[in-house]
């Protein structure tokens, strides 16, 4: 399913706060997430055991979907984080982090811990 991702700074989902005061588990729980409208949740047939994989030309990432009726239909809201950075990119010397087109699919793949994601990035 095609959707749009917007990365945003959120009070309850803040990378700096989680890194300073949280732990590895809270980093993943608070930041490797995507807020999705209930209607899109139903279309994707998401249940509590499934995660979602977002893919585009810049990369891909597995995150935990969270139902949120304040999120517009067809949109995923992600907190600014290392997980969101996996699907952002640079075009014409500008950082692209809003209105990112992505393919979304449900998956039983696990959301990577921050250290595992860093290891993957480093190669």
How would you describe this protein?
The protein has 123 residues and is an alpha+beta fold. It has one domain (2-122): Barwin-like endoglucanases, CATH 2.40.40.20. Helix content is 24%, strand content 37%. It has four helices and eight strands, in the order βααβαββββββα. The protein has a six-stranded mixed barrel with strand order 1-5-2-4-3-8. It has a two-stranded antiparallel sheet with strand order 6-7. The radius of gyration is 14 Å and the shape is globular. 30% of the residues are buried.
Secondary-structure topology with pairs:
Elements: E1 2-8, H1 15-21, H2 24-31, E2 33-36, H3 38-43, E3 51-56, E4 59-67, E5 75-79, E6 89-91, E7 94-96, E8 100-107, H4 114-122
Short description:
The chain has helices at about 15-20, 25-30, 40-45, 115-120; strands spanning about 1-10, 35, 50-55, 60-65, 75-80, 90, 95, 100-105. By secondary structure, the protein is of the alpha+beta class. The strands form two sheets. Strands 1-5-2-4-3-8 form a six-stranded mixed barrel. The protein has a two-stranded antiparallel sheet with strand order 6-7.
Q: Any descriptors?
A:
123 residues, alpha+beta, Barwin-like endoglucanases, 6-stranded mixed β-barrel, two-stranded antiparallel ribbon, 4 helices, globular
pLDDT < 50 runs, ≥5 residues = none
Shape: globular
Whole-number radius of gyration? 14 Å
Number of helices: 4
Major sheet size, sense and barrel closure:
6 strands, mixed, barrel
- CA distance, first residue to last residue: 29 Å
Count of distinct strands: 8
Strand content of the residues, in percent?
35-45%
Work out the count of structural domains. Answer: 1
Structural class category: alpha+beta
CATH topology: Barwin-like endoglucanases
CATH architectural type: Beta Barrel
| Run of helices and strands | EHHEHEEEEEEH
Across the major sheet, the strand order is 1-5-2-4-3-8
Q: What CATH first level would be assigned? A: Mainly Beta
The residue-averaged pLDDT reads 89
Helicity level, as a percent range? 10-25%
């Amino acid at each position: 399913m095609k959707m749009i991702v917007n990365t945003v700074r959120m009070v309850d989902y803040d990378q700096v706060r989680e890194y300073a005061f949280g732990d590895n588990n809270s980093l993943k729980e608070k930041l490797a997430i995507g807020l999705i409208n209930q209607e899109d949740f139903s279309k994707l047939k998401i249940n509590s055991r499934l995660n979602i994989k977002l893919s585009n030309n810049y990369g891909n990432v597995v995150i935990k979907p969270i139902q949120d009726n304040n999120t517009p239909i067809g949109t995923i809201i992600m907190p600014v984080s290392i997980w969101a950075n996996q699907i952002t990119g640079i075009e014409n010397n500008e950082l692209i982090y809003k209105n990112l087109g992505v393919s979304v699919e449900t998956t039983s793949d696990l959301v990577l811990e921050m250290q595992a994601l860093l290891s993957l990035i480093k190669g």
